[in-house]
Write a structure and sequence with these properties.
alpha/beta, 8-stranded mixed β-sheet, about 375 residues
Length: about 375
């Protein structure tokens, strides 16, 4: 069975879908791995490293795809270029990008969207959202610190004491928790907000203060995600966050609702109330942003506040992001590789949870539920 990997074509995408380690493991399982020349360059993986691991290097994407039965990608490649009837494993934005799913179905592509991996114990090593969000939370703090013009930890010197920076993390999912941990390691005083009361213990275990809206309403949804809150809760939330932001130096926003625009957590009035020179890093900008002043992949200065908004933060740590993503894909596929070919168990929970097109049809459950 031929496995093909191409150079990613999406803007700001530096990751690659296989590492040297996973190439070696796939070839040991009997798969022929063919990689387009330069596919790993942005992740510091040369063609030579791939060749040493057992891969064949193709000069062009067309050469890599010729006769391929399995294609691995970070983001969906050109669907029209894929061999008809092939298998695609990638991130596909299935909740919002219906056109790609329809195009895949028309070419009889069996496609798996890795973002849909079930949140079960057995699938933790396959969970691309967790592995990539973890790095995004880390990088968000590093980007904020690089833009901030003051020191982060408290410093006691003969000339006087430097007060520690105050960091507020909005959203305590995987990215938010890593942002808290990173900011604490750098010496900041950290607070965090989330609509899910269940995460309070996790936030406090990392040494941060949990900012809580006084309400009986819970934002917990299935799979550990957050749900949309009532208008009354949103009003209280906006007031509480705005008051907290007045004393904040750096705000990291990570709040997302699957399949819906990101909730607005920092409206313009709240930005106006922040201190001159404060920083906002909006990790939700690809879904509309947690701050309406955010602009995708641009730095905005508004009311003296610098707002950083990158649409693909894991790609900014491409070396580690690629290694983890590649391992996620291998862990997903490995149990179904037998005698050099893929034999999916269509009743397996991880298979049922991630398949979006099969047999010339869109089979993504959310389509039916909608």
């Amino acid at each position: 069975m031929k496995l093909a990997v191409l150079k990613e074509q999406a803007k700001h995408e530096a990751r690659v879908a296989v590492s040297a380690d996973t190439v070696k493991k796939f070839t040991e399982k009997g798969l022929q791995v063919v990689i387009e020349s330069g596919a790993g360059k942005a992740s510091s993986i040369s063609d030579g490293v791939y060749q040493d691991a057992g891969a064949t290097i193709a000069k062009t994407a067309a050469d890599a795809l010729k006769g391929a039965e399995l294609v691995l990608a970070v983001q969906s490649p050109d669907v029209a270029a894929l061999p008809e009837g092939a298998i695609l494993v990638s991130q596909l934005n299935p909740l919002t990008d219906k056109a790609t799913l329809e195009a895949l179905a028309k070419r009889n592509i069996t496609a798996f969207a890795m973002e849909l991996m079930p949140r079960i114990s057995r699938a933790q090593s396959m969970d691309v959202l967790s592995s990539q969000s973890n790095l995004a939370g880390y990088r968000a703090v590093i980007d904020a610190v690089s833009a901030f013009t003051k020191a982060i930890p408290m410093m006691m010197t003969a000339a006087g004491t430097v007060a520690p920076a105050k960091v507020l993390v909005l959203g305590a999912g995987v990215a938010g928790l890593q942002a808290i941990a990173t900011a604490k390691r750098l010496g900041a005083v950290v607070s965090a907000f989330d609509v899910r009361p269940a995460v309070k213990e996790q936030v406090e275990s990392l040494g941060a203060k949990f900012v809580e809206v006084p309400s009986d309403e819970s934002g917990d949804a299935a799979g550990g995600y957050a749900k949309e809150m009532s208008d009354d809760y949103k009003r209280k939330q906006t007031e509480l966050i705005a008051e907290t932001l007045k004393k904040t130096d750096i705000a990291i926003t990570t709040a997302l609702i699957p399949g819906k625009p990101a909730p607005v957590l920092i409206p313009e009035d709240a930005v106006k109330g922040m201190k001159e020179g404060s920083i906002i890093v909006d990790l939700a900008v690809a879904s509309g942003g947690n701050c309406p002043l955010s602009k995708a992949d641009e730095e905005v200065v508004a009311h003296g506040v610098r707002i950083l908004s990158y649409t693909n933060v894991p790609s900014r740590v491409a070396v580690d992001a690629s290694q983890l993503y590649a391992k996620n894909l291998f862990n997903f596929l490995s149990p179904f590789v037998k005698e050099g070919a893929l034999h999916f168990d269509w009743e397996d929970e991880v298979v049922k949870g991630t398949v979006v097109t099969k047999g010339g049809s869109v089979v993504f459950p959310a389509k039916k539920e909608a």
